[in-house]
Give the backbone structure.
Amino acid sequence: MYAHARDGEPTPAQRVRSVIEAAESLTVTTGGHSIGLVGLHTVDAGGGLALHDPPGEHLGAELDASLDGTLPAVVEFTDIAPVHLRDRVRARLSLHGWLGTAADRGLHLHTEYAVLAEHGRSRRIGVDELAMAQPDPLARAEAELLSHLDSAHEDMVRALARLAPADVRAAAVRVRPARLDQYGITLRFEHAGRSHQEVRLGFGKVVRYPEEVGEGIRGLVVGRV
C-alpha cells in the first residue's frame, strides 16, 4: 500500500524509504560505539533494516552485554546527489530505535521513528507512516539515470531548463539535474557566489519503471528542444 503523495511529490515517509533503499553506507551510534558500515546492511520489503557487524563485532558484543538483550541505537544516512553540485548533500536521515538479535544471529533495527532533514527543515516520521509507504521505484536507479542525463544529454538539460521561470534562468550560471523520482525531476540553478534555486518539473504521468524515465522527460520538453 502506498502513502499518497501530494502535488505530485513523494511524501516524507516515501523519501525516508527511498533514501534507505538507495543507500550503500550508514553510521550506527550506540551508547558505546559509532561505527560506519559500507555494504553491510540489507532492507526487507517492509523496510526492516538488518545490520551485519563488521570485523571486531563491537555491536554484537555490546548487545550481548546489555541487560535485556536490546541496545538503543541511532542509524544515520546521508543522501548525496550523484552529479557534481556545490552542495551535494540533499538530505540527512536518522532512524531512532533499538537493536536486537535477528533469527540468523545478525542484528535487526526496531525503528521507533525517523527524522528527515532536507530543504532547511526537519520532520519526524512515525513508524506507522513508514510501514504504509514504499520506496520510489526509481530509488536504486536514480544515480545512474541522473548521471547519464547530466553527462550525455546536455541538450535535454538545457531544454528542461527553459521550462523554469525566466527570472530563475536569468540569474543562473549553471544548471544541473539534482533529483529524480517517479513524479518528476528537479533542476538546480546555481548562481554566482554560493546561492542556488531548485525548480521541480512534474511528469505528465507517474513513472513506474526506470525504462519510462526517457518518455517522461521527452513529454516535458516536446516542442521545446
In short: The chain has two domains: 10-130, 139-221. The radius of gyration is 20 Å. The CA atoms of residues 8 and 183 lie 5 Å apart.
